[in-house]
Amino acid sequence: MSVFERDSSIGGGLLAGALAYRLFVLLLPTALLLVSALGLYADAADKSTTSVAKDAGLHGLIASEVASSSASRAGWIIFLLMLPAVLYALAKLYRAVAVMHAIAWHGSGRRVRTTPKGVALLGLALLVTVGAADLAGWARRSNGAGGAAALAAYLAVVGASWLVVSMQLPHGEAPWHALLPGACLVALGLLVVNVFNVYVTARTVENQANTYGALGIAAALLFSLVLVGRVIVVSAELSASLADRRDSRGQ
Q1: Residue 31: which of 61, 1, 72 has the closest Cα?
Q2: What is the average pLDDT score of the chain?
Q3: Number of structural domains the chain divides into
């Protein structure tokens, strides 16, 4: 009930939407950076774009974009332009997450600072999360018995990564172990979102691609990002509510 009341008072749904927007803004230049980098690699290694895209686990529309990037002379320009764009979007995402945490913990997002260390740790945590999801999926497909162990490892790695990031975000004078509930919720929530995307969103988009086209893909992507934003907001509210409860009992 404390989490629900805190969420209502600070507008948790609006904050989740703001985080989803920042995630989407980060995703756009990151996708262009990835596509241009793979295209340049295919050209430099004298490999076909089909084999490079297959080795990277890409197919369909993204694979065709890799091919067009390899054939274009502007690949280096796109790659160089996307590097600062990704860093800028990552810094803005970190600030949005920091402001959200400050609001959840203190009721105000004033005096929130964007530190290079925090931005770097957030970027590293995002890379670790994506990598852990890919490894867990590979383990699940390769060995059914190893799938459970892979999921447990995914939860531990993602939870630890978010705990490190949370320590850089506003959290009052609470010790690091007070941030554990939120970190665990992020790990579990992202796992649920991943499962939802694999078994529901991806299949729906694939089956209805001819009907809804790019708009359907964009809608599914934005819905997934809103779910991720909601998980991050509720995780901060959970840790803050439990910390307040412990403080009130101590007094």
Answers
A1: 61
A2: 80
A3: 1
